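Instructor's aside before we start: the two examples that follow are unrelated to each other. I chose them only because their records fit on one page, so don't look for a connection. First example below.
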Amino acid sequence: MTQPLRIALAGLGTVGVGLVKILQNQRDLITARAGREVVLVAVSARSRSKDRGVDLSGFAWEDDPVALARRDDIDLFVEVMGGEDGPAKAATEAALTAGHSVVTANKAMLARHGTALATLAEAQGAQLRFEAGVAGGIPVVKALTEGMAGNVMTRVIGVMNGTCNYILTEMEQTGGDYGDILTDAQRLGYAEADPTFDVGGFDAAQKLALLTATAFGTQVDYDAMEIEGIEKVTLTDIRYAMDMGYRIKLLGVASRTDTGVEQRMQPCLVPAESSLGQLESVTNMVVLDGDGSGRTAFLGPGAGEGPTAAAVMADVVDIARGAQVPAFGVPVAQLAAPVPAKVQTPAPYYLRLSLADQPGALARVAAALGQAHISIDRM
């Protein structure tokens, strides 16, 4: 008889609780799809007494996530605590060192330490999976490492942060200014009390760094990313964009070029009638370009208990089945050293200027742009 896959879970916040619910409510379905039973053995979180709305009485408790990761009665360590370093990284390293495979939703940790952690996993014969760390419930990592494994990927583009998309959508639809909409997003739980990580573009940039490494077979290179958030986007910008037939989206773009890999995260004008332009609220969308597959698009909820926990569960089921897939699609030794490239492709930009109402002001602007070899498409 096939032995159960025994899981330890570190983190009982939104995603961790969502995973417990799936394991409790979908036990028969998971067993059928995994080919064996998947059993939660032990858990760890900051507070043992907190009411989380799920029954945890049947699981062993560890106050220390590192001790949880080292338990000898587990096969798989699931990390959903978050944090670039600290307990999350220490526990993940401990699990891999013990030969336990790891499933994580922690994009911040992987954006900084992904290559090193993948190296450790391979050395110990363990798996490292992170579908939930990129675009929530959208299975884009699996698409790259499996469904599109026969393609040479040329570009990744997408809206990867639901908070920013919600703010920009609401500004356009309600006419509210950035500060008011951000307050609403915090009240609804779409934005943190300190929203800098989301609205500054850093959350989405970490996701893009992981997709870039997976798509192009390179080591993770988050520091090479050009990042600009949405803090400076005003209602005036949004209205002018609408007048021209565009919408403003925080867009991540990674491209393979002759000189290296371009990565950037910045507000962009996208045609209002395009798929990206039609994207509203907290929905994410990732578009992949490959030589054989052409262009494929993936759309779905980018965060939340259900979608993110479902993505974690998908990785768990794969490991239960015995699937052996390198973290970034190819063995670490074959990941190319990152060669960052500045944006080379000429592209249109939107400029908004306030000019004095006097003769020659506009002519001087046109002359300055001309001297910089910038042509004016429309004014």
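Example two begins here.
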Amino acid sequence: VRLVYHGSTESVPWQSLLTEIGRLLEANWVTLVLRRPSMERYGLVLVWKQGYQVRIATNYNQYAYAIDPFVNLPPDKVLSLDEVISDAALKSGEFYKQFLEPADIAQMLGFDFHATGNPSSHVSTPGSETVECHFRVCRSGSQARFSAADRDLFKILLPHLKLAVHLHSQGDVLETERELYAGTVDRMQVGMVILN
């Protein structure tokens, strides 16, 4: 839980959390989608791969998102990939052939959540932007299936991650506003006198 909150202050957000979750759950991949891809912009996806540092993924674009069978899960519900799609249907699909098989991913455990102005709410309130996020842990087919204890860990982390992402996104909004106002003032032909 400490790493969830500490992660929002790291230079690569949540790199310690993703690394530790990967180690604890003997995963080969751990991902945190902080912004899903759209027509207007790339998604913001943090990826930990076994043996590597956390990085921002660039290959999870709108096309990958559109064919991913493990998205748009019911909010705040921990699910495994095999609860969403059968193994046969998964392996016959393009997402498996293009993304999962080359990465040695056969099983996933994850949840989707919305980080809003009210972290306990699923509904956005006026003036608060909803951040739709996905958290996934992956294993190869040769590894043990995810256990009830693994699911329990996710259930413990979920409310804390929602709050930490919300607080992080609020900081980003404030920084963006500050940069906007500073840029506007810089372009104005204004003189200023400060009297003490």
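Confidence is low (pLDDT under 50) at residues 117-127.
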